[in-house]
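Kindly inspect both lines:
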Amino acid sequence: MTPAMTSADHRPAAFFDVDDTLTRGTALFRFLAYWYAVQGRPPHEAVRERQRLKAMTTAGADRAETNRAYFQLLTGAPAAEITRVAESWFRAELARGGFFHEPVLEALHTHRRDGHQVVLVSGSFPALLLPVLEHTGAHHLLCTEPEITPISRTYTGRLADRPHQPMIGRAKSEAVRELAAAHRIDLDSSIAYGDHVSDAPLLSLTGRAVIVGDDQDLRRLATHHGWHRLPKAPEPPPVPLPEPHPAPPGALL
């Protein structure tokens, strides 16, 4: 009979929300502005889409709904092109500076030096997050996964038909539970970082938690649970836009 696993057999992890926690600003929208510029589309188009999604939130849509609406903007885009543009965008962000929220980035580096597993948990998607994972040295990625057609390798505008999609709210905590079981992570000795009340299920899952910023609902929870707090990220610098290169006629960008 296999003996019961004890906490001593497990290791701690640090779980990080990404947008407005690890980074300054929302990578999804910063990338959208860059991607539209690559296509030669005017800046106001990206601004208009961001305002449309914000209006959905104001009208009562939850983050999962607006997240799904964002990925409809990728409909028909070749996956390889999105990956290429995302890598170019991330390099431009690093060159511009001010992409990461430094206190949180330093906390991530400290957890890595202490031998903790570092996990990025985000409503963003792999094309944007894999460069962040590689740059920070994080070990695992849990994120929203847009559906890509198997033959043409284009985005369908829908999310993949798998559990925990989109990676928002309770889906984060459920995915973290599964990852912890698969990788022998002790959640009681782990820590989570987040900036929005939708991160509360994740923050409540670990033995320690850190809220980032001024979300009033999270601050009330932090007071109740004794969670720590880091300051809100400063406003990010403008998105570093490329010179436009309009797609040729018939391209699926």
